Amino acid sequence: MTTPLFRKRPLAMFTAISLFALLSTHAYAECERGDLADIYCDEDGNMVADRPSNESEWANPDTLIFAYTPVEDPAIYSDIWQPFIDHLEDVTERDVRFFAVQSNAAQVEAMRSGRLHIAGFSTGPTPFAVNLAGAVPFALMGSDDGRFGYTLQLFTHVDSDIHEVEDLKGKRVAHTSPTSNSGNQAPRALLPELGATPGEDYEVIYSGSHDQSMLGVVAQDYDAAPVASEVVERMAARGLYDEDDVRLIYESDSFPTTSYNYAHDLHPDLVDKIEEAFFSFDFTGTELGEEFEGVEKFIPINYKDNWKVIRQIQAANGVSYTPENLEE
Fold it and tell me: Does the entry feature the keyword NAD, yes or no (predicted)?
C-alpha cells in the first residue's frame, strides 16, 4: 500500500488549531488510554498508542518519510542524515525521503495524519508526539556502553557544610536561567521531594549560565548550583576549574536526548526492519557521526521508563499535552 506524500498542504502550515480540529473529528474508542488522545488506545499500559487491532488499518507504505527535529538549517541536516537514509533504504527495501519540518507542531501533526512514518522528536516535544500523534519512541543516540543523555548535577564547594539536598535550606543557590531544564526547571521539579524547595527553602540567584554557576561555586560566591553534567565535564576537560574544589551532592537520572519514533500503525514486519536499520547503523566515518560527537550507535529505549523524569518535570511546571501547549 502506498501512502500519498504531502498532497494536501505543506507540513509547515499545520497549526495547533488544525491538529485539535482533526483530533476532535474522530470517533472515540472505549478503551484504556491514559493521557493519550481519544483516537488511541493503550490496553497494555506502556503509555504509547497500541497498534490498531484491525490488520487492514496497518500502514505499509512503499515510500517512508523520515523527519528530524526542527533545526535552523534543514538543508544541512538533509546532507548529514543521508548516510543513514541510504542504510535505512537498504534494510527496509523501501524508498526513504528526508523531510525538513519547520516546527514541532507541524512535525507532530504530520505523524498524526499519517504523512510521517519515522521521526526524531526532541526531548520536550516527545510526550506531545506520543500523546497527540501516536508516536512510539524506540531509540536514542548513545555510546557503545549504553550511556546516553545528560544529568542534573548539584555541586557545592568542597569546604562547605552542605552534604545533601536538605542542607541547602537557608543557602544561596545559583540557578542558570528560568528556561533551562537542568539549570532551573528540573531542580524546581525534583529537589522538593528531596528536602529543599527552590525559592522557599533557599534563595535562587540566576547566574546566566552553567559555566558561571560552576565557577561561582568554586569561588564560593554561591553555596551550591545545579548544572548540566555535559557542560561541567567539558569545563573540567578544558581546565576551567579543579574538580577537587567541588563536591557532588546529588545527580538525577539521565535526561534523554532526541527520541526516534515510528508511527504506531505501521505494519509489524516493517517496524522490525526499521528497528534493525537503526540498531545496525555504524556512525563511524559518517557525517552523522561527526555532527553528533561522542555518539557511536542507536540504543533501544522505551517511553514509559526513559521519559519518566521529563514527564515529572513537565507536570511540576504545569505542562499538559494539548495542541495549544505544543504550539506555545
Answer: no
